[in-house]
Amino acid sequence: MRRRTLSAATALAVLFSSAALVAVTAGPAAADSSRKLPLTTVGDVVVDGVHHKIFISDPNLGKVVATDYSGTVLGTVADLPGVTGLALSDDAGRLYAAVPGADAVVALDTASVTEQSRYAIGENTRPRFLALAGGKIWFGYGADANNGAWGDDDGDIGSLDLSGAEPVVTLDQDTETDYSGAPRLVTSPADPNALAAASSYHNRFALAAYDVTTGTAVRTARNTTALTGMTSDLAYTPDGTRLITANPGNVHHVWQASDLVETGTYPSEFHPTAVAVAADGTVAAGADAPYDDDVYVYRPGAKTAVRTYDFPSTGTSSGGDDLPSGALAWEPGGSRLFAVTTNYDNSVRLHVLSEPLKSAPALTVKAPATAPLDKALTVSGSLNATLPLPVGTPLTVTRYDAGDPNGKALGVRPLASGGTFSFTDKPTAAGSVTYKVAYAGDADHSAAAGSARVNVAYYKTPLTLDRNGLTVNHATTVTYTATLGYTYKNRVVEIWADPWGTEPKRLLKRGTVDSKGKLSASLKMSKDTTVTAVFAGDTRYGRAEAKSTVRTRAGVSTTLSRHYKWTKIGTTWYRTFHQTTDPLITTWHNAYPGRYTRLDLQVWYDGAWRSGDSQYFPLNSKGMSYVTLDGDGAAGYRFRIRSVYVDGYTDYVNTTSYGPWQYFNFTR
């Protein structure tokens, strides 16, 4: 017997059809997107709402890249060693960049994305962070963990005044706060003369507020004891009354701007790295959380996140991509949130989060793994959101199956109390049936959808094929008849022949059965053959096969030549040879690689045929064997010989077949 194996596709189909099914769809809105950028690190992110550009600095490569809101690169400014902090002018005509490797602040033209001016700040000042306030450019400068000693508390604030004929740089504007490294800076959106700063390096917390109305930074408040650890980012609320900072811990801290007393927190994750506040007061709190949510969005006044985002891994690490310090920014005048991430392989991506202000519902759909055809089944699930949805919220249901591959609308189902739903349906087609439940979304919620797949059992298809177990002679024509019972729509049957051995399987006939459900095909037999009738199935009746194996005796013929006459002994005619002549025995079997014939020789002795030795001889590519027999000393004896194909001697593609006996004798 031969072994048959499932193809990979068939094996997968069997695997999936037997799997229990519960499907969930939720998370980011369909319009969210991300794109890889030609960067390796992230220093700062600034959004230009006038030119609709995003500027991102890369300290490692020493460049600033400008993209559109989808991440398409629009321009690059290079030769900016260590460039970190960015600040946009009020008219969005200039972008200022802090370039510590050049001890300079560099002005870029935002329209052309080219360098316009370079302002020296002072040797070894290493400016890193910028803010525009009181008509000046303010910069945080000083040594850090990479370019200075870990214990150095030499960070300070300076200003660059470009209003006169020559640039004026003023350093050391707060020598008492002892910032560890260059402090981060931010300007109040409510007061152009209010500035805040925070330590950005080492394990030390320092937060201070300044009034720069006079052109000099006058400290109005300071807090150096509330926390431990550096500040990765900070931002004012739109009214300027609060500051929000990202410090080590599981929350983002909120400070009263007037005295820097902590007034609350926003829950986030263990390592906060970024904070961005929209014009309406919506807070985006970001964290470097490889295995947890990375961004938490809070509506104004809310202490529970309306939405969270978890960035996937795009590199070789198991955890999700990282959110660097200061890598969150809102779209000015819009609702989109931009996030820039890095991964383990130093690849940078821009993420465009299109609906951060909306709650992202999680829609779960559950259905039985299997179900019978034409019997009611129950589909259930839930729709949960950070902003709960009211009872009666409409959910649309669509069923996909073999009969309706493009979907059949099953109407609208209302959401019940507790955010649950349930409905029954009677599947009308067998096979894989998918139920999709969709919520369209509203002003406060993103759209959501979920699906569940049910394996609906087919009705068993009655299919038979005759002739199984028959044994026939070589070259016999056999007619096979398949009989198909009741089906739904499909009445087509295929009949395939698969001869044993190396001959390929082939289609004998494909057609619609007659009124009695029958289809016949004929085959001239040359080898043992398995014939299969196949019904592909329809939407109600499953695929079916019926097999019939017919054994075929090998073709065989044996002839003797070189005799000089025929002699009749009793009722049998003998070929008669001179004993000096060697008879030539010619055998034919239907050809097959490596095939042999067996010659059986018998002698008449003492009133009966006595067997001599049998011997195997190879056949050539045409199925022929030529053997000679030495007749010396055989005069007066009668012989007979036959050719035999033995199933299994060297191959198994035919059934054992015996040729007729050929009779001969010898004279002197």
From TrEMBL:
Q: Does the keyword Signal apply?
A: yes
InterPro entries documented for this protein: Quino_amine_DH_bsu, WD40/YVTN_repeat-like_dom_sf
Q: Which stretch is the leader sequence?
A: 1-22
Q: Which domain of life is it from?
A: Bacteria
Q: Keywords in UniProt for this one?
A: Signal
Presence of the UniProt keyword Signal in the record: yes
Q: What is this protein called?
A: Ig-like domain repeat protein
